[in-house]
Amino acid sequence: MTEAARRSPGTPCWVSLMVHGIDATQEFYRELFGWEFVPGPLQLGPYVRALLGGREVAGIGQLPPDRHLTPAWTTYLATDDAYETAEAIRCCGGTVAVGPLDAGEAGRLVICADPTGAVFGVWEAEAHHGTALAGPAGTPVWNELLTYETATVGKFYRTVFGYEVEPVVSADFDYATLHVGGRPVASLHGVGEALARDRGPHWMTYFEIDDTDAAAGLVTELGGHVLRPPRDGTAGRLALVSDPEGAVFTLVRSRSR
Fold it and tell me: How many other C-beta atoms are found inside a 10 Å radius of the C-beta of residue 25?
């Protein structure tokens, strides 16, 4: 179990979801994870922070009515200087879509994409350091980039954030772990043509749960979808699911639990 503190640059520090129906989405995640909600920064429009045991674990915001986008969970990576990181992203072939944008006293954010088009956020913390709890059921516990191949995109993330990139040496498994200060913080998974064409490269958030099979069943009961049924993997028992608006995420009961 970990609590929030100012993260080293490159460390995943927050996950946020932008949706069309914020009230219905809150109800879905309240029933699934036991989250409670409090208002977030007004500068971000209708936005709430999800709490678990009184600690902040994620954010949910309302998309403007004219933005016909498929909702998706966004992984935010920590930085000490949002302006400097945004410039580095541009110089390394990525794009900056939003920001740097001040979120009141909370901090400063950037919404951007790597050279393959995978969207992620950058967060320069002030009062809000990000996810305040990781480990218990209902908390985000891992972030992974699903992409075509890891070698090229790995160079982008290493240059921008200073990661140590540790690849898995295998002829048929394209995978690398991103390390900050010698500690694994995220991963890259190259799946080639198996990548869903309707999504393209994207960051995936893993949420810890107590029982993968029961949680997957609850997702369906609440109007979501099970995209890949529960299965055992190296990280634990996993299920790929989506909420009623189509935001995709992974449920995991970690082997360490």
Answer: 22
- Helices 82-91 and 150-161: angle between axes, nearest 10 degrees: 150
Position of tokens 């639990």?
257
CA distances in angstroms from 163 to 140, 158, 204, 208, listed in the order given: 21, 5, 18, 25
Instruction: Look up residue 189 and give its amino acid.
Output: H
Do residues 60 and 25 touch, judged by C-beta distance below 8 A?
yes
Tell me which amino acid residue 218 is: L
Quickly state the pLDDT bin for 4 (edges 50, 70, 90). low
Q: What angle do CA 241, 244, 245 make, to 5 degrees?
A: 105
Three-class secondary structure of residue 208 per DSSP? strand
pLDDT in tens, 30-66: 999 999 999 887 766 788 999 999 999 999 999 888 7
Residue 3 one-letter amino acid: E
Residue 46: left if φ>0, alpha if ψ -120 to 50, beta else—which one?
A: beta
Question: Beta strands 248-254 and 36-39: pairing type?
Answer: unpaired
How much is the pTM?
0.92
**∠ CA 175-161-249 to the nearest 5 degrees?**
50
Identify which of 239, 214, 235 has the alpha carbon closest to the alpha carbon of residue 226. Answer: 239
